[in-house]
Amino acid sequence: GQQVMQIPQYQHVQEGEDFTTYCNSSTTLSNIQWYKQRPGGHPVFLIQLVKSGEVKKQKRLTFQFGEAKKNSSLHITATQTTDVGTYFCAGSVSGRGSTLGRLYFGRGTQLTVWP
Amino acid sequence: DSGVTQTPKHLITATGQRVTLRCSPRSGDLSVYWYQQSLDQGLQFLIQYYNGEERAKGNILERFSAQQFPDLHSELNLSSLELGDSALYFCASSVTSGRLNEQFFGPGTRLTVL
CA nearest B35: which of B17, B20, B48? Predict the structure, then answer.
């Protein structure tokens, strides 16, 4: 079945260091979304990538979608304590009418930032 | 605040019991999704409804069932509860059932089975 793998599971960084989380799918995705969940909170949508090779930036965050649409990454430059949380990637597949809209979530990367 | 509401916030019950979790989607959203989040399993998709009809099913146990009502709110029923059902249950909603829609998550219901 469809699987989305995400690594690493945990990442501890010093404030100011960079952080990257990677997402890989066993099959081609139609699009990928990224969510952030703060400790004790709920997942919040960050961004969506649709096109092959797409790169999007949100301030210090850079999101990439692979050329084959099977992988994605989120890179945070110069982390801050406000970046703490778990980052999830979630992909959708095409061609399955009854499951359109379903997101296949990775297990998430839990980011800890030391001041 | 995502606009998605879930009740109750916390639920403590015993093994073998049955509980109902409730979700009200954002105004205008027709699709509702249920997820289970436990420490070692991440976010597990359970089921999706769109405008009252079941649209997709994930790893939902037979002891669990859900429905979406005409006013679009949804309920997740968990029966014959086991210790392993203790988890955070999230409801999310989106405008339609299409794959390009972002999902808005509610605050969750924390279920503890003793």
Answer: B48
